Amino acid sequence: MTLRRQLSLMASLLILLLLTGNLFLTLTKSSLYFEYHLNGRAYDAATSLSLSMSNAVVDGDKIKLERIMDALFDRGFFSEIRLQFNDGSELLRQSHQATERQPAPQWFIDLVDLSVVTAQADVTQGWQRLGNLTVKSHTDFAYRDLWSIARSEVMWFLWMAFVSLVSLEILLRWMFKPLQKVERQALDISERNLYELDHLPKARELRRVVLAMNQMVRKLKSIFAEQTAITEKLREESYLDDVTGLLNRRGFDQRLQHILEDADGHSGVLVLLQVKDFSVFNQQQGREAGDELLIRIGEVLKQWNEERPNIMVGRRTGADFALYIPTTDSTHSEEQVCFCFNLLSSTALNPRAETSFHMGAVYLQQSLQARGQVITHQWSMGDVLSKADAALRQAQYQPQSRFEFYRDDREQNEKTAGEWKQELEKVLANESIELHFQPILNATIESVVHYEVLSRIKDTQTENGMMSASRFWPMIERHQLAPQFDLLVVKRLLKQLQTTPKLTANQAASFKFCINLSAASVLSEEFQHDLELLLKDYPQWHQHLAFEIAEFSIATIESDLTRLAHMLTSKGVELGVDQVGTGSLAFAYLQRLPFSYLRIAGSFNRGLHLSLDHKFFIQSMVQIAHNLDLSVYGEGVENKQDIVALQQTGIDGMGGYYFSYPIDNLAQALEWQPER
After folding, report:
1. Is 425 inside any structural domain?
2. Which residues of the chain have pLDDT under 70?
3. Quick one: which of 316, 321, 279, 276 has its CA closest to 297?
4. What's the pLDDT score for residue 411?
5. How many beta carbons lie within 10 A of that of residue 49, not counting itself?
6. I need a labelling partner for 652 at 20 to 30 A (CA). Which of 41, 56, 263, 432 fits?
7. Contacts of residue 245, Cβ cutoff 8 Å, sequence gap at least 6
8. What is the dihedral sign for C-alpha 211, 212, 215, 221?
């Protein structure tokens, strides 16, 4: 019960006590008054009546006596008039009811007992006693008036109680308004929304509370700012170029290695860019001019990166840049490289800049069809860089700006963009996708806490007949089919949860199913509307769902993500951040958005036991997240040494191929248990 309600209840009880006491006193005093009045009237009537009867008694005129007695009795104020003669005879007038109706409820009459006395007077002539007269007043009139008084008092009591309580509620609302703001502030602090109250209440006690809360908020902001500043500085120093703000060589190579080692497959183009004679440019124009040129190139590439958050851009050394662009085929990759070339040619590296540049690119695909055979190729870092470098050297044979693609002698029978679109639209129309489930374990590797939901489509060119999202997703985005595909994944998962025989909501209470959402889906109002309607059909599964957003895409979709987050959290659906560490957004977004957990990118977890920088970064993220009541999980774990290193960071859980490959059956996934 709130303090305001407690005060209201206490005030109500006090008002009830006061008004009840007032009613008791009123009835007590009124009953005493009526008793005095009734008894007085009876004595007066007995005295006057005895005087008027004396002559009639002497004359023995009973008719006259009865007439005198009736004249008084018929007025209705007396319940009994009795004249007793000396010889024992008597005249009696008696009535038990003075009014046609009962003057008051019986319980009231029993409660208010009027003590009415019987008045007596002797009928005399001179000193001679002729008889005895007794008169008793009737109480009906008194009870009627007392009942009327009681009802009026009760009505007045109810009206006063109503007015008093309404006035009290208004007063308490006004008095407790500052306290309500403090309560809201405390709840917001628990939800990572830190702010100070500007208005200070006049009441000294409440003023102190507000000042104390504001001081705590400032301290929490300071702690969070200090932690995030350290972590962001580490990320910048370790993985970002200090001139352009792009990934440095270490950061780019690390993430590229992660892509190449991904067992789910990959499809994209690696581009190496080099400004011609940059050292000569530095000598002639000065180092400051050289840095300005690098900054201009970086700004153009970062702007393009913001429009396409899934691409990867870095500066390797000097005026050498590298890009990785996810694509589905070589034709699309050439289009992307050509676009990048034209973009730089018209901006930072236009002919008026007196500089030329060259680009070399190689298309990377894990599996392809050549000469009628399916070829699976595992690219190495040295292999892809050497091929891209060979294409770059080929382009540098020309003095003017130019780009070249690495070519080999394999005849590739690839899908065209039109064929891709037709196939993907068919997949959406037929809902012909399959879901695989990647277990995520708790920190002690004892139980499953999450199942990462992965999507697959059929592909005859691969050994298992399935194509991972990393292969077809670039074409999904190219043809703007991401919202439809994400919605289909959610729909398919909910149907499987509903129809799995051995699965109930209670059995699934210990873990969540995590689904990745694309930036395009978050930006789509239609998708958010359709998702809300879909979730309404499966309310029993809301608490077992979680949606993940890649960190690198948050900067461009934050306002729309906020709207989606409020809808999801109102239903009990969690929201998480995937690929933490791959974005350049300041970690303050963790305060602004209602996330429940973070998932560290696999590139930080692989080889963790050999990298102190990575370990410190994860430890810092864990500390920041735990201070905000967020959980942290790692992915891409592939050896025992990295498991131990992750556990030392204080992380809440982890997953990877070391534990299990994605499981293609929900029932089997739910039965899966980690090896002890």
Report:
1. no
2. 1-4, 96-101, 176, 179, 183, 189-195, 201-203, 205, 262-266, 351-354, 366-378, 407-417, 460-465, 501-510, 583-586, 676
3. 321
4. 41
5. 22
6. 263
7. 298, 302, 584
8. negative
Residues 6+ apart with CB under 8 A from 545: 512, 513, 515, 535, 573, 574
The verdict on 486 and 577 lying in the same domain is: yes
Are residues 399 and 488 both part of a single domain? no
Residue 213 lies in a domain: yes
**Residues linked to residue 377 through DSSP beta bridges, in sequence order:** none
pLDDT at 486: 94
Contact present, 494 and 534 (Cβ < 8 Å): yes
- Does residue 351 share a domain with residue 228? no
Q: Are residues 233 and 253 in the same domain?
A: no
CATH of the domain at 374: 3.30.70.270
Residue 356 φ then ψ, to 5°: -125, 165
Question: Do 616 and 658 share a domain, yes or no?
Answer: yes
**CB < 8 Å & 24+ apart, contacts of 2-11:** 3/176, 3/179, 4/172, 4/173, 4/176, 7/172, 8/165, 8/168, 8/169, 8/172, 11/164, 11/165, 11/168
Q: How far apart are CA 286 and CA 116, in angstroms?
A: 122
What is the per-residue pLDDT for 80? 83
Strands (E), 428-541: 434-442, 448-458, 466-468, 512-517
Can you give the pLDDT at residue 314?
A: 92
Task: Return the pLDDT at 372.
Answer: 40
Report which residue type is found at 168. L
User: Which 3-state string (H, E, C) describes 378-439?
Assistant: CCCHHHHHHHHHHHHHHHCCCCCCEEEECCCCCCECCCCHHHHHHHHHHHHHHCCCEEEEEE
pLDDT value for 24: 84
The model scores a pTM over 0.85: no
Indicate the length of the chain as a whole number: 676
Tens digits of residue pLDDT in 387-445: 899 899 888 888 788 889 886 544 445 566 677 788 888 989 988 899 999 999 999 99
Burial per residue of 14-40, b for 16 or more beta-carbon CB atoms within 10 angstroms, e otherwise: ebeeebeeebeeebeebbeebbeebbe
pLDDT of residue 535: 94
* Beta pairing class for 312-317 and 320-326: antiparallel
Q: Is 581 left (phi over 0), alpha (psi -120 to 50) or beta?
A: left
**Integer Cα distance of 491 and 503 in angstroms:** 17
User: How high is the pLDDT of residue 653?
Assistant: 93
Indicate the residue type of 443. Answer: A
Distance CA 360, CA 404 (A): 5
Q: Are 291 and 337 in a shared domain? A: yes
Distance of alpha carbon 435 from alpha carbon 426, whole angstroms: 17
Choose among 135, 125, 134, 132: nearest CA to 84.
132
Rounded to 5 degrees, φ, ψ at 77 are -85, -5
**pLDDT score of 409:** 45
Residue 290 resides in a domain: yes
Cα–Cα distance measured from residue 242 to residue 240, given in angstroms and rounded to the nearest whole number: 6
Cα–Cα distance list, 669 to 331, 506, 574 (Å): 38, 17, 21
Look-up of token digits 């050509």:
338
- pLDDT of 265 reads 61
DSSP for residue 589: H
Residue 602 is encoded by which pair of tokens?
């696999």
Burial 432-449 (b: 16+ CB within 10 A, else e): ebebbbbbbbbbebeebb
Supply the range of the domain harboring residue 395. 247-405
